[in-house]
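Memo to structure team: turn this sequence into structure tokens by end of day. - J.P.
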Amino acid sequence: MTNGKYRLRQDGVLDDLYRGPAFMIRRAHQIATAIFSESWQELELTPSQYSVLFALYQRGAVGQNELGRLVSLDRCTTSVVVGGLSERGLTSRREYPNDKRKVLLRLTSSGRQVLIRADRLSVRASEDLMSVFTDNQARVFIDLLGKFNRAHETQRPRTIRSGS
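Reply from structure team:
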């Protein structure tokens, strides 16, 4: 049986699935998430939480919707991530001066300390993740991932949803 470019096989061999881009990207995401989650285990931090802390450190006070856009999280996920960080005292919230419906988020001093520790661990996790490549292969891989992400962000900015 044929389905576009890939052949559906009756013999139980999954090579076509395993070589498919969607499967490979999902599997790469699982591997990267596992490596980073393991490295940040002592901090009880997820990759999404790290991204939020990092963005707040770089940008200072920012609205929750803008923060979600900065780190490519949908509204619901942003709310959950920010809520967890706020409960731990790593971020703080305050209302916009002219619009009580909007909230400004900022990194607390505790959040800065966790981010500093996470950043050190992140360097090691990145090195571990990329250790399968030569330096040149790693540069090419990152360049290709960047090209892939930029192309798909401009094509479908509102439909891309993020997990974890």
